[in-house]
Amino acid sequence: MLKKTIIGFMLALFAGPLSAHAEMPGQPCTAAQIGTTKMADDKQNIIACLKTGDTTPGANVSEWKAMTMAADKGYSLTCTDWKAKRFSSKDDCIMDGRWHLVYANDAAGNTTYGSLQDLKTYGYDYGADVKNADEEGTHYCQTFSYRSGVANCMDGARVSGQVFSTTMAPNDNTINLGAATRRSDGVRLAANVARSASGLAEANNARPPNSLFKWYVRF
Asked: How far, rounded to the nearest angstrom, does the alpha carbon of residue 133 sit from its chain's CA centroid?
């Protein structure tokens, strides 16, 4: 069995052009086809015509045998070329455990790539990880929501200021706790709580200029 497997693997690697008509493993092949390979009907495995070793009268002396694992699937950013990358469907490509671009919007909230419905389906309905990117960088969405036709990427709380410095002043006013939301309509919202000059906590809200966003999902 091991010997047949090794032979089949070598045939799959070094065989010439494949036939346009392929049978599935287990089907008989002719004596003239012994030693040839072709693509299986599943489009993912190479099959080889090998002798079975069964010389019983009436037995099939050769069969198509699947000798390779599914071919390696290449990475596709958008999965629009999922067939060329050897995936069974676009969803199969999107759900391969890597980041994929599924949607983009301009600063006015107009679609510039993909489908907002796809972003909702993958990120909200199916629970994929979501991140988006703008001119400031890439932002991982600790919480992703979809309300009234708008996708929302919400950062987790973050701390900034001299709290990370080894020479923090006793009355440091730079430490703040903040969070932000980035939306598919281009809107950015930010809020933070910082120490005021009087030493009391002070809340601040901001709405920076709208931004274009690219949205990615990962399963």
From this structure: 16
Phi-psi region of 199 (alpha: psi -120 to 50; beta: other; left: phi over 0): left
Residue pLDDT tens, the chain, 219 long? 444 444 444 444 434 333 334 456 677 777 777 777 776 665 556 677 776 666 666 665 676 665 554 455 789 999 999 998 888 899 999 999 999 999 999 999 999 999 999 999 999 999 999 999 999 889 999 999 999 999 999 987 666 554 444 554 555 556 667 788 999 999 999 887 776 666 666 677 778 899 999 999 999
Q: How many C-alpha atoms does 12 have within 13 Å on its Cβ side?
A: 21
Q: Are strands 176-183 and 213-218 parallel, antiparallel or unpaired?
A: unpaired
Q: Are 44 and 72 in contact (CB under 8 A)?
A: no
CB 70 within 8 A of CB 88: no
Q: Where are the alpha helices (DSSP H) in the chain?
A: 2-14, 90-94, 116-119
Model pTM score: 0.61
